[in-house]
Amino acid sequence: MKIIKTIALLLIGGLVLSGSAWAKPVIDNIKMHNTRILINSSGARPVSELTREKTEKILLNAHSAINSSSSWDEVLRFADNLGRLSLSEKNDVIITKPYIQNNKKDIFSLISGLWSKTAGQNVYSFKSPVKGTNIYLYSSPKTQQGFGVLAVNLNDFAVTIRLASPAEVFLLKSERNNRILLNNDKVSSASSINPADLKGRVQNIGDMAIPPRSITFLLFDELKANDHDGGHSHGEEHRHEHNH
Predict the structure, then answer these.
(1) Which of 161, 163, 214, 244 is the most exposed place for a label (fewest CB within 10 A)?
(2) If DSSP codes are grouped into helix, strand and coil, which group holds residue 189?
(3) Alpha-helix residue ranges (DSSP H) falling in 66-143
(4) Distance (Å, rounded) from C-alpha 110 to C-alpha 194?
């Protein structure tokens, strides 16, 4: 009888946990936030413009904030600075200090190239419902109907984004041994990669997991106004249950 009661308590405890702010670990024992972030064009409002001069200043400013360690924390901060500075409505971005080139900045050049590859002239407002998961929305540099996205997940948990249209994906993350992966392939020498020649992996409509402490670039040939479940504005918080 005691055994039956113990099993019942464990089952109840499991149900309480699965309905809390955290879902159970779903990929490689990584915690997954139970908020789905919707990526669509509904309500997209231009807030600034990326002129060539402004883009150059943003890159210089983001580079100038890097210290000599070039740790993954610095890489994440660099990518987030690109998005944050691009939201400025003014075309004049103030340079904080001179940018000094050194041989540790290969990965930053790769990120700069991927940003230029996926970010067009218009910058749109986008409010992420998950604190620490910052999402920046751009027009596409390739197609008139297209959009580009920079998603920087600074959190120690994964999040789910839902795509309203198929996208080309470039996902950068760092493993515990400091090995950097681009779409799960090891980046042996970032300096040998030409971002303009890179082909991303295709992600179909639906849910996509964004790993903890990662940088994701998305490029859409076109982006629908609503997700395929219908009715949700971009960035809108949409909670979902995980089945186990």
Answers:
(1) 244
(2) coil
(3) 72-86, 106-118
(4) 8
Q: Which among 68, 77, 72 has a CA at the least distance from the CA of 99?
A: 68
Cβ contacts of 90-97, under 8 Å, gap ≥ 24: 90/48, 91/49, 91/51, 91/53, 91/54, 92/54, 92/57, 93/54, 93/57, 93/58, 93/61, 94/61, 95/57, 95/60, 95/61, 95/64, 96/61, 96/64, 96/65, 97/64
Q: Which amino acid is at 194?
A: N
Secondary element (H or E) of residue 208: strand 206-210
- With residue 2 as reference, give the H or E element that holds it: helix 2-18
Q: Mean of the per-residue pLDDT values for the chain?
A: 75
Residue 66 has pLDDT above 60, yes or no: yes
User: For the CA atoms of 106, 111, 117, 121, what is the dihedral angle to 10 degrees?
Assistant: -120
Q: How many CB atoms lie within 10 A of CB 49?
A: 14
pLDDT digits (tens, 9 = 90+) for 127-145: 889 999 999 999 999 988 8
Domains annotated for the chain, with CATH where assigned, are 2-239 (2.60.40.1180)
Residue with token string 């996926």: 118
